[in-house]
Amino acid sequence: MKTVKKLGVGLILTALTMSAVGCANNGGNTATPGSNAANTPASSKEEKVKIVYSMWGSASEGSATQAVADKFNASQDRIEVEVMAIPWENYMTKLNALATGGQLPDTGMLQEGGVIQWSAEGMLNDVSAMYEGSESKPLDSLAYKYEGKTVAYAAANEILLLYYNKDMFDEANVPYPPSALDQAWTWDEFVETAKKLTIDKNGKHPGEEGFDSQSIVQYGASVENLPWQLETWALSNGGGFYSEDGTEVRIGEDASIEAIQKVADLYLKDHVAPLSVGQTDDGIQRTIIAGTVAMATNGQWNIGTSLNTAKEEGLNYGVAVLPYMKDKVTLNTGGANVVFSQTKHPEEAMEWLKWYNSEENNWTLISSGIWMPTLDKWYKDETLTRKWVENPNFPPYDEYKSAVVDYAQSSAARPAAWFYTNYTSDFNTLLGSVLGDVWTGKTTAKDAITKNLDALKAAHAGNK
């Protein structure tokens, strides 16, 4: 399956495929509480309502997902789900063609950056009723909303956090980063700690006489500067990329610009971070796993996609909450499953999605650390939390629960921009290009953003 550099899309591509394979192998066929699918015996007396679910992937990946759907089909006598697998390269082209012909599937996957756009064009159903009557619903930060209506729920939850190499901290005799939100480091504390962990070839630290910034052998920190993750720091500094309702661009505000410059200065002035040009989604592999950086920010999914293997090979890592500039902020994200407005069977489509998205049917992904649950009961019920977290794939329970589980449902957790505003893909692509010279010091964040602010606003408005 094609790997995409933008986090959310790349994550959902990998994860949904693994979900299909994992569910087919682990026999997961438990419906969510309140679902009719769990309680109705299979019968062929009445013709079932046929639902088509689209996904991007190969024919074999489609077959694996169909195997999961077949479990749902056999569990009740009302709905029959058929999986339509479309290669990633052709997925949106195919959907657009089907939409034009009035032949969209009933439900399917949609890129994060396309959800609000499709909603604005009247192509998605309101799914607010999906969890009515259920004992649990997804966290509020996982709802894609357009004009006050929920038009999709994330199929999985993810948050941004701070990873660190415990051995490097121990060797430097430096206290670990805090896992509790109420003890989170300020940005200045983060930078000062990074200096203690940054070492040149002569054992010198930034600020010490004789320190050579051109011969650093270990960096103290790395802050992921993929465009969508950068908004964390703009928000933390009292700014943002967009207004709360998503209608206006705020990246030109002083607070937003200052935050981006502070990230750049970790390399340019503080000399505690390696150069990163914000173009590849492999930050943890290049830093923590490579053994060149003591602490690095990135998404929770890295536990399952790469850190488990590194842990088996001897990496002693921990997780902590992000530092903050003015406000404590992390971002929630997760790819979307949607119900298309052309369907004649929205209720049945929602019933399938509710079943398919349930934690029981994605357990391989959740227990491995690639996905986090969406339903709030997994964050609030200690029995369920322990079922999720107490396994060898995760850091120690108390550490992970505080830095991840509690963090994800705290006041610091905010939805990534694609949950509530349009054209984020176009905006992020342009922003990544605009900031290229900022990371290398050829220009400042203020000059780069100010000169390109009209273009960024146009991108956000859908004007190319």
TrEMBL record:
Keyword check for tRNA processing: no
Signal peptide: 1-24
InterPro entries linked to this entry: Bact_solute-bd_prot1 (IPR050490), SBP (IPR006059)
Domain of life the protein comes from: Bacteria
Keyword field: Signal
Name of the protein described by the UniProt record: ABC transporter substrate-binding protein
SUPFAM superfamilies to which the protein is assigned, alphabetical: Periplasmic binding protein-like II
